[in-house]
Write a structure and sequence with these properties.
The chain is α/β, with parallel strands linked by helices. The chain has 20 helices and twelve strands. It has an eight-stranded parallel β-sheet. A two-stranded antiparallel sheet has the order 4-5.
Length: 593
């Protein structure tokens, strides 16, 4: 890998065409394939911009969801290949795209060292040969996709169920599997056995004799145990996990899957110490399964471990890679402030650059019932409160990707929808609740926002693609780390920041990535205790005490780690130690039960 970072999926639309912008420079990024309507409109938009013939795939055509996804991914692949080919044909002239490719590389890259040496060569045959060698070593970044495994709505046509292979997640997977891409699918948001089993049907997920895979599986996980359970399930089916992508449970963007108090440092330590044993256990299962399919491999397959969530400095990036022997880190939210790379409309960018820590918060806004990192100043939040004030809470629900509630209807509807909220509020009004209880429940019901439209609208606004009467309210879900970045940045600046060539946070007070996550977990525990004050059960007391104990053990781990990683007389160590002591005092003050 030339680069030691990737750009994770950002909402629905924020990274929908990021590969078009970064893949030719060797940088891997991830796009969401949840919304096939967005995917189709982006193919139409970029086809028109590039003067490429576009044949639409209508929503009501057979298997339209998977076909739209396949068509868009093939389109991206072809465009990026052409862009890369054009880039490689350029001369090595200062300011050219081919020079930019090499200059973006980290200073530790052998390829970059070769480039710098070549640029010092005198003109002549030797320099031309050197340039050919460098060009042959250039690699595209991967066009990876993300599927939220449990966002798997059943679909109906004229009241008839379209079948198990046409549920949302399986159709999206098929769209990826049948594309030309040599890439990875990131499976997030928990385990879906039906989806995982379906992958067996596609030859691209199976290895050649060199153990190479055209389509690879990345599991996004928040702890070792769940990673191993999922990977074993897949290995027994002859499906290899090529990467475990560890994400902080709370210090991340989008949906937050909090652990039971297990902190990122101890989780990474567990992966580090158990990595080889896990590999051997999985490989033995995998080998048996593929041999039953008549496949023999001569090499052991690769398996990477990466981390993402709240990383903000070159020092953190370097430390995580070195200390935990990781293959890469993920940088997501900071790239929202890089207009060259992601799709954020001008008004939202202005709000983000002026935001402070309090503007980023963990909410209950997601219709999936999973905690969701939200932004207070988003226009979708303004629209939500305006609708409540007008006596019409909820959204029209035109896309229906997150329909998962059958409390009042035979077919699932979305808890952010006007239909659901009307029915739920009506039932609350006859439930005999006190005024205080009713107000609490009302806020819970009306707190949900439409993510299907909100996470796309910024892209439509940026590209001037909004249709008449289409909702322009923007939902955006950065991680808390974005509070420390308060400007718009060039692509080269952000990459330079990651590798320590520049420091975009030079004058900014910001806690270490581990301390920030610890404090988020303490706040999370404090809120949970507060919610239970009236009705602590023995089971809940046990769970909360277990949570608190894990945090205490995490603090002890960090004390030892920080004393090893920094000179104990240094300002850096004293600052880390003081921050840790402050966090411990706050945790110790929390009384459970």
């Amino acid at each position: 890998m030339s680069h030691s970072f990737h750009i994770p999926v950002l909402g629905l639309g924020y990274s929908i065409d990021t590969p078009l912008k970064v893949a030719r420079y060797g940088i891997t990024s991830v796009l969401s394939i949840v919304d096939d309507e967005l995917v189709e409109r982006m193919r139409a938009y970029h086809s028109q911009n590039r003067l490429i013939h576009y044949t639409p795939i209508g929503k009501n055509e057979a298997d339209s969801r998977s076909r739209r996804i396949t068509a868009y991914l093939n389109f991206l692949s072809e465009c990026i290949y052409q862009d890369f080919k054009t880039l490689k044909q350029q001369n090595f002239i200062e300011g050219s795209d081919i020079c930019r490719y090499f200059e973006l590389l980290p200073d530790t890259s052998k390829l970059k060292h070769g480039y710098e040496l070549m640029m010092e060569y005198p003109e002549g045959e030797a320099k031309q040969i050197f340039q050919s060698v460098l060009k042959n070593a250039m690699r595209l970044g991967s066009i990876d996709v993300n599927i939220m495994a449990k966002v798997d709505k059943m679909n109906y046509v004229d009241g008839e169920y379209t079948g198990d292979t046409h549920t949302d997640a399986l159709a999206a997977l098929r769209g990826f599997a049948e594309s030309k891409l040599n890439a990875s699918v990131v499976l997030s948001a928990g385990m879906n056995p039906k989806l995982y089993s379906y992958m067996e049907q596609f030859a691209d997920f199976l290895p050649d004799q060199n153990a190479s895979l055209k389509k690879r599986i990345i599991l996004k996980v928040s702890d070792f145990r769940s990673a191993l359970i999922q990977a074993k399930f897949l290995a027994k089916k002859g499906l290899w996990v090529s990467e475990f992508r560890i994400e902080s449970g709370l210090n991340c963007g989008g949906h937050a899957f909090a652990t039971e108090g297990y902190l990122l440092g101890p989780i990474l330590e567990e992966f580090k110490t158990k990595r080889r044993d896990m590999y051997q256990e999985l490989f033995e299962m995998y080998q048996v399964a593929i041999e039953q399919k008549g496949i023999q491999i001569e090499k052991e397959p690769q398996q990477k471990i990466t981390v993402q969530g709240g990383i903000g400095t070159a020092a953190e990036h370097h430390f995580l890679l070195q200390h935990y022997q990781l293959d890469a880190t993920g940088w997501g939210s900071p790239f929202l402030l890089v207009p060259e790379v992601t799709n954020v409309d001008a008004d939202t960018l202005a709000q983000l650059t002026g935001a402070t820590e309090k503007d980023f918060y963990l909410s209950d806004a997601s219709p999936l019932g999973i905690r969701f990192n939200n932004f207070r100043n988003s226009t979708v939040e303004q629209q939500r409160t305006e609708r409540i004030e007008k006596g019409r809470p909820g959204s029209p629900c035109t896309k229906k990707y997150l329909c998962n509630n059958t409390e009042f209807t035979e077919q699932a509807i979305c808890t952010a929808s006007r239909e659901y909220q009307h029915l739920k509020i009506k039932s609350l009004q006859t439930a005999g609740l006190t005024a205080e209880e009713y107000e609490k429940k009302f806020k819970e019901v009306t707190g949900k926002i439409c993510l299907c439209e909100g996470l796309c609208s910024s892209t439509y606004l940026k590209y001037d693609m909004l249709k008449p009467k289409e909702n322009k309210a923007v939902a955006i879900c950065p991680g808390p780390n974005l509070a420390y970045f308060s400007d718009l940045y060039a692509f080269d600046e952000m990459v330079g920041h990651i590798y320590g060539k520049v420091n975009l946070l030079e004058q900014v007070e910001r806690p270490h990535v581990f301390i920030k996550e610890l404090n988020l977990y303490i706040d999370y525990l404090q809120e949970d205790i507060k919610q239970q004050l009236q009705h602590f059960s023995d089971k809940k007391i046990k769970q909360l005490n277990g949570f608190k104990l894990q945090l205490t053990e995490g603090i002890n781990y960090y004390k030892k780690l920080f004393s090893e990683m920094a000179d104990q007389a240094s300002d850096e160590f004293m600052q880390l130690y003081e921050q840790l002591a402050s966090s411990k005092n706050k945790l110790d003050a929390l009384i459970v039960g």
